[in-house]
Design a protein that fits this description.
Keywords: Plasmid. The chain contains four helices and no strands. It has 52 residues and is mainly alpha-helical. Helix 1 runs antiparallel to helix 2.
Amino acid sequence: MSKIRHTLQLLHSGNLSTRQIGAALGISKSTVSDIASYTRAAGLDWSEAQHL
């Protein structure tokens, strides 16, 4: 779960690409994109996701 939370945090910062986030966390860029898509579909933003 911590990789998901960390992915969301890095996506929220807006400073890194999906490829860079994936490389930093040891996951694929498609996984980063999937996490972002699932979060948007659930209607969550970073302030809500931090408390999960």
